[in-house]
Design brief:
Helix content is 82%, strand content 0%. The chain is mainly alpha-helical and 191 residues long. Helix 3 (46-67) packs across helix 4 and helix 6 packs across helix 9.
């Protein structure tokens, strides 16, 4: 896990409450509320979306916390609302008819998907083996997500919430690594 991510997460907890234990409770309450919000809006991957909302807030907490007044939970809910708008906008976007798909793919020479996949593979290999195995196992879809992940947490001897936090941190490190890799690939293509 990167030092930057740890610092941001510590800032987030301090923003939620100066008492670390109360901050952890507040974090879990907010996370559960986010899951409920996404579920009520019909999002099938509510847990992942809640984690993404938390990641977005964590990445901006240094700027937000110093000027924000009021309950921090409301800021999280605002981020969730914007994410739902993004989802709706994506779903309403016009789609390419199936017969035209081959032509669109043939015309696209950017190889963005291949680059992203290559970067993901490279970044996965840079993770410690235990973290790599955990993140890969966490996103397996053998059973319904919730049941599978609860079982995984039980097998690892940890609470489901602890597992989610650990995976969230690993995912943030992967995201950062992938972004950096894609940036490097983009820089190499322009040179």
């Amino acid at each position: 896990m990167s030092k930057h991510w740890e610092d941001q997460f510590e800032l987030l907890l301090a923003w939620l409450n100066p008492d670390r234990e109360k901050a952890g409770q507040k974090y879990e309450e907010i996370r559960q509320s986010l899951i409920n919000i996404f579920s009520w809006r019909g999002c099938h991957d509510a847990e992942d979306l809640a984690d993404e909302a938390i990641t977005r807030v964590t990445n901006k907490v240094g700027d937000v916390a110093k000027d924000y007044s009021g309950d921090p939970a409301l800021y999280f809910y605002g981020v969730a609302k914007k994410m739902i708008w993004e989802i709706v906008r994506r779903e309403r976007a016009p789609t390419v008819p199936a017969e035209g798909l081959k032509e669109v793919i043939a015309e696209d020479e950017s190889h963005e998907f291949e680059d992203a996949y290559d970067c993901m593979e490279r970044c996965l290999t840079q993770l410690p083996p235990a973290e790599r195995e955990l993140i890969l196992r966490y996103y397996q879809q053998e059973k319904p997500k919730i049941r599978y992940r609860r079982e995984l947490a039980r097998r690892l001897g940890m609470a489901p919430n602890n597992l989610r936090v650990k995976v969230h941190r690993i995912r943030a490190v992967l995201h950062s690594c992938i972004q950096q890799c894609l940036q490097e690939k983009g820089d190499n293509e322009t040179n």
